[in-house]
Design a protein that fits this description.
Structural class: alpha+beta
Number of strands: 16
Largest sheet: 6 strands, antiparallel
Oligomer: single chain
Radius of gyration: 50 Å
Helix content: 40-55%
CATH class of the largest domain: Alpha Beta
Length: 550
């Protein structure tokens, strides 16, 4: 169910008002409660000390001696305690002695007109165990604390707060000291806080009622104000917006709002937006047409680039000496990575793996130039180092954009199994010898192509036997990044290669790409991912001599 602005404001203000009301009421209640508790705590402690200081030590000794309840001292002290209880509105006022386990009552003041029941008055000499008097472990602890204070001649301060069958009470006790400062008895002083609690409850209800009335009136007045100054102008603006969008005419006359505040500024901004939208729609129409034209051209460029890379497999169905497979997944419509493989002559197969710096159309155009130059200069009997040196110089001549290429080229002699290669700053390949796992083949890389003129590149070589595989790739494989910005890395690549050592090249590469996709997840692809795998299956036939397997 959707609510309009005014009901939302009413609901939110009402909730806010209720929260403020409750908060204010409980704040006042808490402060009043704290004040009263502190006041009564002081009264209990001070009252007990005052009564204790009023007692005559000799009279107290007389009362505590055998038959003390039959003495005049007993009568005078009891009358005094009854009077103090009545005039001070004290709940319980007693003369007692303590030991570590019990309390002995000698005078338990009783004032019937205050509602005291004579039948429950503690008789002279009544001994009550702490364990029998306490209704809880907390109450029992209060008795032990009182005994500790009694033993050390101190008043119980702060007072004990108990809530049990006797009510909600504040209890204190003050020692009666002899001439030597030794405790001979004490005065127990107890106040019932029931009336205080009733007062606090009524205070809380009163504060809630007053606050609700004040907040309610404030909310009603505020809602009337908001309706006139906010909701009605916004409603006009909403209706005007609906009419404009329905008609589709953004050059219509604007709305006039005379509120003198931000809503008027909003109306003026809306009028300005109508004019800007009219211009924007015109520009957008033009830009959309241009974007569609560029998109169509990029599609053509993508097809052209794809067609320039060998993409028909099996690539050489008539050649059984080797099996080769390659893939390229650009990060954009067109990419800067490229691979190539071609027969240099009847017995030599060349493979190329390269990565142009940058992305998009500039990298793709530079890729076309680099790929063409490498293939054109790779001739039978030509040293691969010389090939890269010549290509590097030619690329430097027409490199106004400052691009460069990392490249790897290898040529396999199908008769002897010799694999010659040259590396211009590219990733090292993985090689799996027949029946063995893939391992990175560590070779020293030369400088990148198109980076600096007159660079010399040295080629290397190794011998392959039937069953050997070469896997080459670009940095888009090892630098593929997941959502946590962790790299795919060489270790993961080596692991997935060795889980699938026996797979054919056309089976191996999709498995590697699937493993990369699973690692990356939903993270975007920032670089082209290009891979090539060559498997040497057997020597070229009709050769004069067969090389010995390693």
């Amino acid at each position: 169910m959707r609510l309009k602005l005014l009901p939302k404001l009413m609901l939110s203000l009402s909730i806010l008002g209720i929260i403020l009301t409750i908060s204010l009421a409980f704040f006042g209640y808490s402060n009043t409660k704290s004040y009263l508790e502190d006041m009564y705590a002081y009264r209990v402690v001070f009252g007990a000390k005052c009564v204790a200081t009023m007692m005559d030590v000799d009279e107290i000794r007389t009362i505590l001696s055998e038959g003390g309840d039959q003495t005049e001292a007993y009568t005078r002290v009891k009358e005094t305690l009854n009077r103090l209880k009545r005039e001070g509105d004290i709940t319980f006022l007693s003369l007692v002695t303590l030991d570590e386990n019990s309390v002995t009552f000698y005078i338990d003041s009783n004032v019937p007109e205050m509602g005291d029941d004579p039948a429950v008055e503690m008789p002279y000499g009544t001994n009550v165990l702490y364990t029998n008097a306490a209704s809880s472990e907390e109450d029992l602890q209060h008795y032990y604390n009182a005994w500790e204070c009694y033993s050390n001649g101190r008043a119980v301060d702060p007072p004990a707060v108990t809530e049990n069958q006797y009510g909600w009470n504040y209890s204190s006790a003050a020692p009666i000291l002899d001439e030597n400062g030794q405790t001979i008895a004490e005065i127990q002083y107890i106040l019932d806080m029931h009336g205080v609690r009733e007062y606090l409850n009524s205070y809380l209800y009163f504060m809630l009622a007053i606050a609700l009335v004040v907040v309610g009136l404030s909310v009603v007045a505020y809602i009337m104000f908001i309706r006139k100054t906010v909701t009605q102008p916004i409603g006009r603006l909403a209706e005007f917006t609906k009419n404009v969008t329905t008609a589709g005419r953004f050059n219509t006359r604007g709305i006039e709002l005379k509120t003198g505040d931000e809503i008027e500024a909003l109306g003026n901004s809306f009028n300005f937006m109508l004019l800007e939208l009219d211009h924007y729609i015109h520009d957008l129409t033009t830009m959309t047409a241009e974007k569609e034209r560029i998109s169509a051209e990029l599609d053509v460029a993508t097809h052209i680039q794809s067609s320039m890379l060998p993409c028909i497999f099996p690539a050489f169905p008539e050649r059984g000496e080797f099996d080769i497979y390659a893939t390229m997944n650009p990060a954009k419509e067109v990419g800067g990575d490229f691979y190539d493989f071609f027969m240099v002559d009847e017995r030599h197969l060349a493979i190329v793996m390269a990565d142009v710096s940058g992305k998009g159309v500039p990298a793709a155009l530079f890729m076309v130039i680099g790929k063409t130059l490498i293939k054109d200069h790779t001739q039978s009997g030509t040293d691969l180092g010389s090939v890269f040196s010549e290509v590097n110089d030619l690329l430097c001549e027409s490199n106004s954009e400052g691009l460069f290429i990392t490249a790897f080229e290898g040529v396999l002699d199908l008769v002897t199994g010799e694999f010659t290669f040259v590396n211009a700053g590219h990733e090292i390949p993985f090689i799996a010898k027949s029946g063995e796992p893939f391992a990175p083949y560590k070779i020293q890389a030369g400088f990148v192509l198109a980076g600096m003129e007159e660079m010399n590149y040295r080629c290397g070589s190794l011998n392959l036997v039937p069953g050997d595989k070469i896997f080459q790739y670009t940095d888009g494989v090892t630098e593929a990044t997941d959502a946590n910005e962790q790299l795919y890395g060489m270790e993961r690549l080596e692991a997935v290669l060795n889980r699938n050592t026996g797979k054919k090249p056309e089976e191996l590469l999709p498995l590697i790409k699937a493993d990369i996709d699973a690692f990356v997840g939903e993270a975007p692809q920032f670089d082209d991912i290009t891979m090539l795998c060559l498997e040497f299956k057997h020597y070229m036939r009709n050769r004069s001599s067969q090389p010995q397997a390693d």
